Prior knowledge:
It is a single chain. By secondary structure, the protein is an alpha/beta fold. The protein has two domains: 3-88, no CATH class; 93-282, no CATH class. Helices cover 48% and strands 18% of the residues. It is built from ten helices and nine strands. Helix 3 (44-58) crosses helix 4. The longest helix has 27 residues, at 63-89.
Amino acid sequence: MLGPLYFTGIFWFWLPTAAPRVLPSWAYTPTATAFAFVFQIFLVNVRRALIANLRAVLGPCGFWAGQLRAFRTLRQFAYSYGDRYESLAFPERFRVMVDGDEAWKKARGMGGLIFVTAHIGAWEMSSYLAASDLGLKVHVVRDEELDPRSQAFIARLVARHVNPNCVTHFANDDPRLGLTLNQALRRGEIVALQGDRPRARSRTVSVTLFGRSCELPAGPLALARLSEAPLVPVFAFREAHYLYRVICREPIRVAVGGSPDAAITAAARVLAGHIEWAIRRRPHQWYALAEVWPRDVS
């Protein structure tokens, strides 16, 4: 019924792309806050999911404290969402600080790398940084949008604005994507992808997050084992408007010998520890908009 106004519709991709071109800079914060307030009222299931998920991170709370937690997360989401599209059109406005130089230098000596992150902050910032500032070729894997018009819009936007060293691949069921990424890693290039949300009907591996069982996608770990490329946990936290901090964590090697399942499970547990660290650092920049532990967080 809502068509393009549904939350996966093209309106919500067009709006943050057009807004920086027409709104004065002082309007950014009140506009994002206003949208967060609207989302807080109307996105009932999202609000409930945020409150439930954050209980696992921040502990139990009362009704109003839970509402405030959800609002703070939705406001950060509005900020990061707007920054994502503004950075495509006006990359010169943004500044990125990099922490974890030692981990980065250690990883760079290992050949091809897999940047693995989670739905925290603005993960694209780390990929674009590597493609532009470091002069490295980066293959970014994004999920396809549910709405075909939204997907076409995003594909055109990325093709027009992203650095030439940054190649975007849209995840689907085509097995050739894995082959393409494996070849890129063997050439010493970088692959950047999400490592916290399994796609429908995809293989998963069980880990523990905040003392509760959850599933991580096995794909990034299997790719690391096949290519023998290390996984580098990378998180991009929003510090202020136009300012992001990218943190590189210690590389993770997936064992090549022995049982594939055991090697992938062991690496997944280490990765889950890095993801938990990142969420604890900025809990309101963790954009888990569906319940991670349905009916389980009390």
